[in-house]
Design goal:
It is built from ten helices and no strands. It starts with 5 loop residues before the first helix and ends with a helix. By secondary structure, it is mostly helical. Helix 1 packs across helix 6, helix 2 crosses helix 3 and helix 5 crosses helix 6.
């Protein structure tokens, strides 16, 4: 069997995100994705046999790209917790701002009927490193002893809103904005 061209997969993923931004999840059609990716309609089915399969694979790919950005910062326990958390905050804010449509896709997909059980397991597993750093902070009495879901709502909610306003040109993503919003988030998390 001929190996799949990674450039075509990338083109399909990019086309899907571009179209998603225009028509939403339910409005996506495989033929339109193929057209946007500049490939034949039949070719897309060689790579993904259904829209659901495509969306699940795109979600996993997007999640893995995000994890690569933060993984080194999470595991380097030689750095203080606050320093590691700030690095994650900075990468998170940049990723959410510069990959805004991808992040909106990931959020909407997570709550859609298209997500498979396998992808739900993958998603839950991928959040574990963040839970680990929150647990470390709580065990060290640095962070509030609250349920991780509540702490993540605080962090993700603030990241989401700041990136939205950066995307809409109401705010500019600067070092000062990253630093000041990190301190706001950190102060809310601190024990």
């Amino acid at each position: 069997m001929k190996e799949k061209d990674p450039n075509k997969v990338k083109a399909i993923f990019e086309a899907t995100i571009n179209l998603f931004a225009k028509v939403g999840l339910s409005g996506l059609k495989m033929s339109e994705i193929a057209k946007e990716a500049s490939i034949a309609s039949g070719t897309i089915y060689i790579y993904f046999d259904s829209k659901e399969k495509l969306l699940n694979e795109l979600y996993k790919d997007s999640k893995q790209n995000w994890e690569k950005l933060i993984s080194e910062r999470l595991v380097n326990k030689q750095l203080p917790l606050k320093t590691r958390f700030k690095a994650i905050w900075e990468e998170g804010l940049k990723f959410r701002t510069f990959e805004y449509n991808k992040m909106v896709f990931m959020e909407q997909f997570t709550n859609s009927p298209f997500i498979s059980e396998d992808t739900k397991v993958f998603s839950n597993k991928s959040i574990q490193p963040i839970y680990n750093i929150l647990n470390e902070g709580k065990e060290s009495l640095i962070l509030k002893d609250l349920d991780n879901t509540i702490l993540l709502c605080l962090v993700y909610g603030l990241l989401k809103e700041i990136s939205f306003y950066c995307q809409s040109d109401n705010l500019k993503l600067t070092k000062e904005l990253i630093d000041s919003t990190f301190l706001l988030c950190w102060d809310a998390l601190k024990a």
